[in-house]
Amino acid sequence: MASKENQQIAKQVIAAVGGRDNVVSFAHCATRLRIVVKDRSQVDEEKLDNIDQAKGHFFTAGQYQIIFGTGLVNDVYAAVEAEGVSTTSKSDLNDVAAEQGGWFQKAIRTFADVFVPIIPALVATGLFMGLKGLLTQPQILDLFGLTSKAIPDQFNTYFSILTGTAFDFLPVLVCWSAFRVFGGTPILGILLGLMLVNPALPSAWDVAQGNAHALMFFGFIPVAGYQASVLPAFILGYLGAKFEKWIHNHTPNSIDLIVTPFVTLLGMSIIGLMLVGPIFRTVEQGILHATEWIVALPYGIGGLLWGGLNQIIVVTGLHHALNIVEIQLLANTHWNPVNPIGSASIAAQAGAALAVGLKIKSSKMKQIAYPSTISALLGITEPAIYGVNLKFIKPFIFACIGGATGGFLSSLLNLRATGMSITVIPGVLLFLNNQLPLYILVCLIGFGVAFGLTWIYYSKHPFEEDYDKTTSKKNVPIDTTDLPVNNETIATPINGKIESLSKVNDSVFSNEILGKGIAIVPQDDNVYAPVSGKITVAYPTKHAYGIKSENGAEILIHLGIDTVNLHGEGFTSNVSQDQDIKKGELLGTFDHKAIEAKGYDSTVIMIVTNSDEYSDIKEVTEGIVSSKNPLLSLEL
């Protein structure tokens, strides 16, 4: 039976989201309550801010996520369930959230599912292009007494391989990912993608430059290679996956292994080369030209519009659709004028958030604003947008003005990145040429305008509310066990490489909302207890553990990002809740390579959830670490 306190929290949650009738379903993970609602207009976000013991909330992927932390989230979930609200699993909840959106939102979500996994390859390629630009600058060559003519052919060939492979074989990456998302066999997607760029076909580059002629099938269908194409491979991947599943469902099991791949490849190769390819290459070129036209509008108008609207698009969740635009720009021109404009708009969100943090009296808002500023400067704006700027509306508007100003300047200066997906500070790596000072200037302008407007406005107008008055109840400790809190050293739970928590691809962890800690890129599958104490949380999904040490430290070990969706697949657990544990004992295992193969981030996160009880939490080692060795020092 839920305690009176948790029942009260459950009632606050239900009231804040518009009542039981407005809840489609809800679930929870290791730290967050996740709720899908019918009508967002019925949600009172001010009430969400004031829920007892909640550490914050945000809306993403069609669902509200209310952060409670380990242990408490289970109790609140049970209390909400006791109030008669419909529950579901987290993965099913994601499906429900997806269904809540219209067809356009579903299409955007699908684009993201297909293109996000291939972005790392394009990011690396962009960095290679930037590195080549840096090393071949006349000023750099002069340092070694060289000229461009002195660069060995082998060097040029090597860098051509580094900078050309991803774009030359882009249809392979896209077709593979589309097959994976739409339920086909990925290896067939790879093979179809390779058919689109087979050397037997005249290359797209040669045909475009007039050095070769397309093959004419039936006298009127032009067929050439599809190097650097995106849409033809995406459509072919979608059709191919659906076609393969249809054949599979209509083929006897005894001959399925032979018939299904044969018919799939034969049919899709014909459709791809002669129908899908020619049609969607034309569509793709239209999108590319439209984007180039907008960005190239005279007097910086294109950059002003793009920079001003960029983060509004992020709020709507439609920014994933922009990936295909940037990919097309890079594949066809090897330049990305959208990136510096986006960087200016992101820097502007950081500037507004910092001004709020410096001006507001609320200590809680300061604790959110400062990490959010850092996160935005590293290219992740959601914490700054949802956690700070949109709470007061005007800082978000000022940030959009800053983004428009920076975008305007970027267009006037004709700035162009060599890659995509990394922005602001990390984005410097895409401008390792004579554009670098101008790129920094554009980001500073976006940041400065947003900061200045926010600072000036709130110098004359008080903030609408003081969060200290409404959040005083939120600091009630979750665990009431009377264990003393003493200085302590926490061991490494797994073999791997240390990473800063700020680099974790989850804003709840990276912004230290749940507490300070460390991230570890695993090199092993065994997870060990970092302290002696008691298991306070052992999830059935085996993806997270909560431990309270003998010295009072409350520790969360989270294995991967969003791995709760795997429902325990790839995980084993050797412990149960309320079990005593000794430092160095095996908690369980997780197959990090198999988890990564399924598209999940396998980073292990260790958080001290009662960090505010310590004056200092610092690393005592760095780099590659071995399990059971000292990792964090906790000092009162």
Your description of this structure?
This protein is α+β, with helices and mostly antiparallel strands and 636 residues long. The chain folds into 4 domains: 98 residues, Glucose permease domain IIB (Gyrase A, domain 2), CATH 3.30.1360; 172 residues, no CATH class; 175 residues; 148 residues, Distorted Sandwich (Glucose Permease (Domain IIA)). It contains 24 helices and 20 strands. The strands form 5 sheets. Strands 15-11-12-13-17-9-8-19 form an 8-stranded antiparallel beta sheet, with no helix packed on it. A 4-stranded antiparallel beta sheet has the order 1-2-4-3. About 4% of the residues have low confidence.
Describe the protein's topology.
Elements: H1 4-16, E1 23-28, E2 32-37, H2 45-49, E3 56-60, E4 63-67, H3 72-82, H4 90-100, H5 103-115, H6 119-135, H7 138-143, H8 153-168, H9 170-181, H10 186-196, H11 204-208, E5 215-217, E6 221-223, H12 231-249, H13 253-295, H14 301-316, H15 322-333, H16 338-359, H17 363-377, H18 382-392, H19 394-413, H20 424-427, H21 436-460, H22 467-470, E7 488-491, E8 496-499, H23 507-510, E9 516-522, E10 526-528, E11 533-538, E12 544-549, E13 554-559, E14 571-573, E15 580-581, E16 586-590, H24 592-597, E17 604-608, E18 616-619, E19 624-625, E20 630-635
Antiparallel strand pairs: 1-2, 2-4, 3-4, 5-6, 7-20, 8-9, 8-19, 9-17, 10-16, 11-12, 11-15, 12-13, 13-17, 14-16, 18-20
Strand content: 5-15%
What is the domain tally? 4
Q: Quick one: biggest sheet? A: 8 strands, antiparallel
> What count of helical segments does DSSP give?
24
Rg, alpha carbons: 27 Å
| Global shape | globular
